[in-house]
Each structure stands twice: as C-alpha cells, then as structure tokens.
C-alpha cells in the first residue's frame, strides 16, 4: 500500500490502518462515533493526502480544462472554488473534483484517489503544461465549528476572512500552503495543502491545539453520509451521469463538455434514476447493494449507507426512480424489508459549513 506523508505520525495516535484504493490510511483513531461527534462539536483533523492536486497555468490550459468538466471554470473568480465533474464521452462521471482559481492565470484542481491515475493521464493528454503536484502535497482537513478559532490560535491568519467555498495561497510558519474553506463533513472547516516534507510538522502543530482530535475514514464516511455527500466509486462512477447523481445545479449548460448531447437528451426525457438521500426508521443502516421497493415494485438500489451518530438512525444514498424519489415517501430496502424514508439533502441540518464569518 502507498503511504501518505503523514503515515509515520499515525502510530503516535493509535491509528487502525486499512487499505483505501491502495493507500494505507487510518479508518479510526479513538473510535468512529467519538471522532464523528467531536467533529460536530469541536474540530476533527483528517489526513486526505491520498487525493490528487494539479496546477493549471495560463488561459489556454484553463480553457482546455474547462472543456473537460461540467462547470464554467473560465468564469470562476480569483479566490473562489467550484465543485464540478470530469466526464467521459458518454457523460459518465470519471471523477468529481474541486477547482480553485488562485489567480487570473492559475487554477488549482483537486481530485479523488480512486481514479487518480486515469485523471492524471487525461489531464496530461488534454491540458497543456498541467503540473501533477499530488506526490509533493500533503492535504490536512481541519473540520468542525471550532476550526477557524483553532487555526487562528496557531497563527494562520489567512483563514480569518475566507468565505464558504473560497481559498487563498499563503504562508504559515515559513511553510507555503494553499488553504480553502471547504470540506466533506458539513461543518465549518478548512483544507490545508502543504508541501509533503512539511506535512507531518503541520499535522503535529494542528493536533497540539486544544479542541482537536485526529479522525479517520470511518468518521469521514459517517459525517459525509449525514450530509448526503456522494463518494466516488460508491455513489458516483462512469456508468452514471451528473443528472443521475443530482449534480444538476453544477452543470453549465452554455459550455461544451464531453457527453453533452446525451445529457441534454436525458434532461429532456426526465425519466432517469436519481441519487437520493434516505434514512431508516431505526438504528439499522441501509447498506450498499440493498434493493429498494415501493410496495411490491422495485424502486432502486442503495449505493452507500451507515449509522448516522448525529441522527440516531441509519442514513444513506440510493438511486431511485422518479416516482420513488419524493421526500417523505416511505419505502423498504434489503432482504429484511428495512423501512426507509426519502429525504431532502442534507439529512443532518445543523451543520455549520455555511456560517457567515464576521469580525
């Protein structure tokens, strides 16, 4: 398994390490539920260094990247982030990604671990001069309602004015980094992109601050599930389109992108399955692969599910037929007819990610 720049720091915190897309990553440190709840009320710290980072420079390269994704990146303002997706020729999702406009001439592009080799090859072939910085970058996510307070206490003043889905290039204790106000938990949070050789020092400094706790993949999954954030490889894959994955609002229909003709046809027909949040009526979780039924009729399939510690019930995502994907509708799932309810996203509604910062 590949190791992130923070691997040697795991043992100091009692990590239980697992294989995640070929990476040795911590599934938990103190326990999934404890880490989940601590992130909701204070601040969890996550190693996300397995993800990919690419620097795109120049108007021609940015325009080339723009033609590969569903969002309008050329119009993205400096300092703003945009969630988008890379598509194949059939409008299937290769990867869901985040773009940050660092300057008029620079776009920072962040991708997932699973399809990283495919994405790297695609960008190298289609985006002139793209620089793959993945191996040279450690990514540390500080998530939770106290995350801003903690980063400011450590002297990272660049975090102070950041609005939701914005970012900046800065320096912290002599270390150059990129910081964005974003995350995968539904809470106020920041993502730190750090040179790999400085990653362990930054990780240790953040975890030395009062109110922080190291967190693993398990808590990351329960937190994102409560927010109905999809996971690439489970909820998203090349067989599904952005319309099926409920990414409608991120599609810039005025731009050109792979598979646009198919996507327009699908939009006009309107009869496609849709990725939809669901929750159970008790603590049992809907599990990936569970078939979903509306009475005796098959209505879809669960793609991911878990117990939601902040909700006290099972929560997950399922591809459902248009007739079944109605908030409040009761369905059943799995071999034991687990009762589930269709929800609007997010299922957990007390997250602090969108809180407005003043002062």
Task: Tell me what you see in this structure.
It is built from eight helices and 20 strands. By secondary structure, the protein is an alpha+beta fold. It has two domains: 1-269, Gyrase A, domain 2; 273-342, Aminomethyltransferase beta-barrel domains (Elongation Factor Tu (Ef-tu), domain 3), CATH 2.40.30.110. A six-stranded mixed β-sheet has the order 11-12-13-10-4-14. Helix 2 packs across helix 7 (217-227). The longest helix has 11 residues, at 116-126. The N and C termini lie far apart (45 Å).
Q: Characterize the overall form.
A: globular
CATH superfamily of the largest domain: Probable tRNA modification gtpase trme, domain 1
The number of domains is: 2
> Multimeric state of these chains?
single chain
The whole-angstrom Rg is: 20 Å
The proportion of strand residues reads 25-35%
Strands, total number: 20
Overall pLDDT: 97
Count of DSSP-assigned helices:
8
CATH architecture of the largest domain: 2-Layer Sandwich
Give the helix proportion (percent range).
Answer: 10-25%
End-to-end gap:
45 Å
CATH class of the largest domain: Alpha Beta
Named CATH topology of the largest domain: Gyrase A, domain 2
Low-confidence stretches: none
Largest sheet: 6 strands, mixed
Query: Order of strands across the widest beta sheet?
Result: 11-12-13-10-4-14
Order of helices and strands: EHEEHEEHEEEHEEHEEEHEHHEEEEEE
What structural class results from the helix and strand content? Answer: alpha+beta
